[in-house]
Specification:
By secondary structure, the protein is mainly alpha-helical. The protein is 73% helix and 0% strand. α4 packs across α5.
Length: 95
């Protein structure tokens, strides 16, 4: 007996094929961003499957948002480290 529902990975591939025209955006930056976002959805495919939601599109978008937030937090941490390492203790004071 076969599957009655597509797997989460299959749903992400279906999402990619449905949005392939968007992926052909004229700007390279947009194409790269789309590829990166779909990679985030593939990375979180297990979480999508575990959620068991009948709303695959929303789950894929949520997985993408989680990936974006994680990337943003990593950048914030790295900026803080860089900023703290560049700080000088002997800054001139106003007279």
């Amino acid at each position: 007996m076969g599957r009655t529902l597509p797997t989460a990975t299959m749903q992400v591939y279906q999402f990619e094929s449905e949005w392939k025209e968007f992926a052909k955006a004229p700007h390279t930056v947009d194409r790269e961003a789309f590829v990166e976002l779909t990679a985030m959805a593939h990375y979180h495919a297990a979480a999508i499957a575990h959620a068991g939601s009948p709303y695959a599109f929303e789950m894929i978008l949520l997985a993408m948002l989680v990936g974006v937030v994680k990337r943003m937090e990593a950048l914030e941490r790295s900026d803080t480290v860089v900023f703290n390492n560049c700080r000088r203790d002997d800054t001139p004071t106003a007279r």
